UniProtKB/TrEMBL annotation:
Name this polypeptide is given: Acyltransferase domain-containing protein
Superkingdom of the organism of origin: Bacteria
Keyword annotations from UniProtKB, A to Z: Acyltransferase, Transferase
Keyword Disulfide bond found: no
Domain GNAT-like C-terminal: 147-295
Domain N-acyltransferase N-terminal stretches: 26-145
A Pfam family assignment: GNAT_C
InterPro entries named among the record's database cross-references: GNAT_C, NAT_N
Length: 302
């Protein structure tokens, strides 16, 4: 996959962030924890020639596709540099801000969007016991201008064609997934996306929203308590397909248990209702699946 990246400097000179910029961006813009910022500064200092060249090429991939859809496929970072992907992303923050400003997106929203970086750094530390950003490629959506955080939910322009399909995504940090929070976010998106991308969406009627997630598995309703927000969220979507029969271990381990995929079942934490409910299903032989569904606005009263 590395071969498919543009060459170093192909689009513009790589604005390699220095230690002070890395620290400031992480603490002031990305809401990162101090230990993640410290480790990132150390990791920056440890980049060798080949790692710096790869960071440059990753940045060029972003610069070449500002305003493009979805997120980019990136090669796995070299084992010695688990934070490598962070640096081209931080280098691209000014490109993102310029894109947002051009499209009338408030700086407030740009800042809120970057909070996801701090969250995923925290999650990596929880998963692997050290600093890292295993989903660095995910943030190429944020910095290229395809993804926005509008209230509780994230919306990403993902599909092909003149009015691309919009994916709904759910951060871990951000509070309960109540129907009111979901409705507010979706209402915002129906207004926001046509305003930001008038060449794609003439109005809310051009938007098709969907979600692919462990949250949409209808089996969850049988295992979660009545008060859980998750089944109510799932029921907003018209499901398509049957999901992957191989299951969704990596997502459940990551999002529900906060553990790496190789953690044995008996070592998973059972600290709250969600974890205990999913575990009860595992023990009963339920094959949990990720499902895809299209958002039915009428189920939100919209
Ligand atoms: C989706 C999400 C916001 C739902 O949270 P919610 O609205 O609080 O969900 P529920 O109403 O079902 O919460 C029920 C229980 O789950 C717990 N819970 C909520 N989020 C949790 C999480 N990320 N990890 C573990 N437990 C969680 C709550 O503490 C509660 O337990 P309690 O009753 O013992 O206090 C939450 O599961 C989450 O943050 N997930 C991670 C992000 C994610 O999965 N995104 C989708 C990726 S495809």
């Amino acid at each position: 996959m590395t071969q498919e990246l543009p060459q170093a400097g192909a689009v513009r000179a790589y604005p390699a962030p220095g230690a002070a910029a890395v620290r400031e961006l992480l603490l002031d813009w990305c809401g990162a924890d101090a230990d993640d910022a410290d480790d990132a500064v150390r990791a920056l200092g440890a980049l060798d020639g080949p790692a710096l060249e790869l960071a440059d090429r990753l940045y060029q991939g972003i610069a070449a596709d500002m305003g493009g859809v979805k997120w980019l496929s990136w090669p796995k970072p070299p084992a010695a540099h688990p934070l490598l992907g962070l640096f081209p992303l931080l280098a691209a923050v000014p490109d993102m801000l310029a894109f947002h400003a051009e499209r009338g997106v408030d700086e407030d929203l740009s800042r809120r969007l970057l909070g996801d970086v701090g969250e995923k750094l925290r999650l990596n530390r929880r998963l692997y016991g050290r600093a890292g950003l295993d989903v660095a490629h995910w943030f190429t959506g944020h910095v290229r201008g395809s993804l926005y955080q509008l209230g509780r939910l994230q919306f990403c322009v993902e599909g092909e064609g003149p009015a691309p399909y919009v994916g709904v995504h759910i951060r871990g940090e951000g509070g309960p997934l109540t129907l009111d929070a979901v409705r507010d976010s979706v209402e915002w998106a129906l207004e926001f996306l046509p305003a930001v991308f008038p060449e794609r969406y003439a109005g809310p009627g051009d938007l098709a929203l969907g979600c692919h997630s462990w949250l949409l598995d209808p089996q969850l309703r049988d295992w979660l308590p009545e008060r859980s927000n998750i089944p109510g969220f799932a029921e907003l979507f018209a499901l398509e397909g049957d999901g992957d029969p191989a299951g969704n271990r990596s997502d459940l381990w990551r999002f529900v248990f906060g553990r790496s995929e190789d953690t044995p079942v008996e070592k998973l934490p059972l600290d709250n209702t969600l974890q205990r409910s999913v575990m009860a299903g595992i023990e009963a032989g339920v094959q949990w699946r990720n499902r895809f569904g299209r958002l039915d606005l009428s189920r939100l009263g919209l």
